[in-house]
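User: I'm preparing a small set of examples for a lab meeting where we compare how different chains pack in three dimensions. I only have the primary sequence for this one, and I'd like the structure in C-alpha cell form so I can line it up with the others. Please keep the answer compact; I'll paste it straight into my notes.
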Amino acid sequence: MSKTNAVRILESRKLEFQLIDYEVSEDELDAVSVAKKVGMDPDTVFKTLVSRNESNKIFVFVIPGSCELNLKKAARVSGSKSIEMIKVKELFDLTGYIRGGCSPIGMKKDFPVFIDETALIFDKISISAGVRSTQVVISPVDLISVVNADTGDLI
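Assistant: Understood. Below is the C-alpha cell output for the 155-residue chain.
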C-alpha cells in the first residue's frame, strides 16, 4: 500500500497505530462489512461522515460503524441549527477522499471534527486509512489529538 495522507500524518506525529488491509467489494463499503473483513467488533470500527449546517459550514462526525448519526444531536454538539449529510458526489472535492475510504485524518482542509463519546470506552478503534482496503487501528485519545476533535453524544 502506498502511504496515504492519514498515515503520513500519524507517522510524523510518531503515534502508535496499526494498519489492517482487507479486500474491497463495491457492494460492501459500509463499516459493518469492513468490521467483518478485519475481524473487529462493528462498535470499534468507526465511520467518517461529512455534513454541512444551515450556514453551509462543513463538519465531520466519526461514529461507530453499527450506528446512525443523530442529526439533531450532531447539530447541538456543533452549535448549529441543523445538520444534513453532504451528497456523495461532493465528498472527494471537499475532503480528497472517496466513499468507503474517507478518513478524518488528512482531509484537504481542517474541518471541525466530532467523535462519538463511545470511542473512549475502547483502548483501540479503527478508522479508514484514507483509502478503500486499509484501516488504521489507533487509540481514540490519539485520534482525538491528531484531528483536534471534540467528543459528544452523536448517536
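A couple of notes for your slides: The longest strand covers residues 46-53. Helices lie at 5-12, 31-38, 71-78, 88-95, 140-147.

User: Perfect, thanks.
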